[in-house]
Amino acid sequence: MKLAAHASLDAVCGEYLVGTLRGAARRRFERALADEPLVALRLAYWQRTMAVGYSPRIEVQPAAGGWRRLERELGLRALAPKWHQRLGLWRAWAGAATAALVIVVAVESWRPGAPPLATVALLEAGAGHANVTAQMSADHRVLVLSAARPVLASPQQSFELWLIPAGGAPISLGVAGSLDTRFELRPALAAGIVAGAKLAISVEPAGGSPTGGPTGPVIAIGSVSS
């Protein structure tokens, strides 16, 4: 049984984050992170949720003269380099920083830009759901979904994107755990995203529809505009 469909997925993510998941259980979880996208999404959700935020209550104001006291008690002055030694260090650091900057600029100049995106459909959602914009790259290799607000599937569910040709049966374009995602398109599928077709998103069991067609509720649908 896949961990993504297990009822205790959130509890296991919590144990992993606080460090109490160890041994074989930890190794199994880390394999699932690599093999099951929904597991990685849930872990990322709990990482954001459990992250410690800033609060004035955690501020600590050091006592006046604290650094001077530490410097005196630990004898740090004797370890400080002389001024001529510091000059050599700064020259070396400046040379290394300049070389690194040249490399970064060269790499960025060489790296090809990502193909631009064009909106192909607006998937309108029912009450309680977020509208989704579908954009396709200029080379027709990538379809990107962007929701009006972040929406994650539950551990027991997946979102599945469908292409509905005019007068044809739905064709699955891919499965995701979030409404903000991207799909790599095969040429045959990309060729079907044309005016007259529709895009729809349904809620399916974890991993996608077991039948090859939508089985759960359709939460967003829209016509392809180009």
Which parts are unreliable, with pLDDT below 50 for 5 consecutive residues or more? none
* Helicity level: 25-40%
Percentage of β-strand residues: 15-25%
Distance between the termini: 41 Å
Question: What structural category do the secondary elements indicate?
Answer: alpha+beta
Q: What is the radius of gyration?
A: 26 Å
User: How many alpha or pi helices?
Assistant: 6
Secondary-structure element pattern, one letter each:
HHHHHEEEEEEHEE
Question: What is the average per-residue confidence, as pLDDT, rounded to a whole number?
Answer: 81
How does this model look, in words?
The longest helix is centred in the middle third of the chain and has 28 residues, at 83-110. The mean pLDDT is 81. This protein has 6 helices and 8 strands; from the N terminus they run αααααββββββαββ. Strands 5-4-7-8-1-2-3-6 form an 8-stranded antiparallel sheet, with no helix packed on it. The chain starts with 8 loop residues before the first helix and ends with a strand. The radius of gyration is 26 Å and the shape is elongated. The chain is an alpha+beta fold and 226 residues long. β2 and β3 (142-147) form a beta hairpin.
In short:
The protein is α+β, with helices and mostly antiparallel strands. The chain is 35% helix and 23% strand. The chain has an eight-stranded antiparallel sheet, with no helix packed on it.
SSE layout and pairing:
Elements: H1 9-18, H2 23-35, H3 37-50, H4 66-74, H5 83-110, E1 117-125, E2 132-137, E3 142-147, E4 157-164, E5 171-176, E6 181-184, H6 187-190, E7 198-205, E8 218-223
Antiparallel strand pairs: 1-2, 1-8, 2-3, 3-6, 4-5, 4-7, 7-8
Helix pairs in contact: 1-3, 2-3
